[in-house]
Design brief:
The chain has helices at residues 16-29, 47-57, 82-87, 98-104, 108-120, 133-137, 141-152, 158-161, 182-199, 202-207, 221-225, 242-251; strands at residues 5-9, 37-41, 62-65, 92-95, 124-129, 165-168, 209-212, 232-235. Helix content is 44%, strand content 14%. An eight-stranded parallel beta sheet has the order 7-6-5-4-3-2-1-8. By secondary structure, it is an alpha/beta fold.
Length: 252
């Protein structure tokens, strides 16, 4: 049985003190919550402050980062390494988000290097895949997603691959207020699970957790979670509001 995982991607929002207060408010709203892994992914500069709040209150909330470099150190101005994230208590890291691909030129090959590095440093990658509106309308969703999964998990062992969290985020649904129907998301995500089965083995495909992301709200999360292959969500805007994020967690 796969444990659902809900991760909040704060993107480039909230100052350090605001992030600290948000995580405190979330925890206040969900005392004793169990049966779901909860992750918050603040901007890099907020991580120490949020980590302090989590540790101070003994919260059952894990820290995630929004990106990382694949090298441990070096002349990579502006980058953050897996060792730096580990040092701050980070457990998860989002890799290959569509905004990174769109605005910063990230490629499937770069995603693969980061996924390998995260796993080598005992970080859990949340590897994002998703199609654009143009690709969807052209009937290319399956081809695009399958290719991203295959290239992102290239040369992984089944053991390593089973620790990857895959987030299916249709680009046309991110921040637009539009979301895929639960049935549409399930169709794509079951296809992802089938691809993992073909790449590795049944054990791996049954263990890998696959999230849906894209305008997720307390109102629609139950529909997504009712699907057999959907194991949680990578939440954007709703994760910036304690009440909405907490309600998503309760409903999951």
């Amino acid at each position: 049985m796969r444990t659902p995982i809900i991760a909040g991607n704060w993107k480039m929002n909230l100052l350090a003190e605001e992030g600290k207060e948000l995580v405190k408010e979330i925890w206040k709203n969900i005392p004793g919550l169990s049966g779901v892994d909860v992750v918050v992914c603040p901007p890099f500069v907020d991580i120490p402050s949020v980590a302090s709040a989590i540790n101070e209150k003994g919260m059952s909330i894990e820290l995630g980062a929004q990106n990382m470099h694949w090298e441990e150190s070096g002349a990579y101005t502006g980058e953050v390494s897996p060792l730096m994230l580990k040092d701050l208590g980070v457990k998860y890291v989002i890799i290959g988000h569509s905004e990174r691909r769109q605005f910063f030129g990230e490629t499937d090959q770069g995603v693969n290097r980061k996924v390998k590095s995260a796993l080598a440093h005992e970080l859990i990658p949340i590897m994002c895949v998703g199609e654009s509106l143009e690709e969807r309308e052209a009937g290319q969703t399956e081809e695009v997603i399958t290719g991203q999964v295959k290239r992102g998990m290239f040369e992984l062992s089944a053991e390593k691959a089973s620790n990857v969290v895959i987030a299916y985020e249709p680009i046309w649904a991110i921040g637009t207020g539009k979301s895929a129907t639960a049935e549409d998301a399930e169709k794509v995500i079951s296809g992802i699970r089938k691809t993992v089965l073909e790449l590795f083995d049944k054990g791996c495909s049954e263990k890998v957790r696959i999230q849906y992301g894209g305008s997720v709200t307390p109102e629609n999360i139950v529909d997504f979670m009712a699907m057999k292959d959907i194991d949680g969500s990578l939440v954007g805007g709703a994760s910036l509001k304690a009440d909405s994020f907490s309600e998503i967690l309760r409903r999951v």
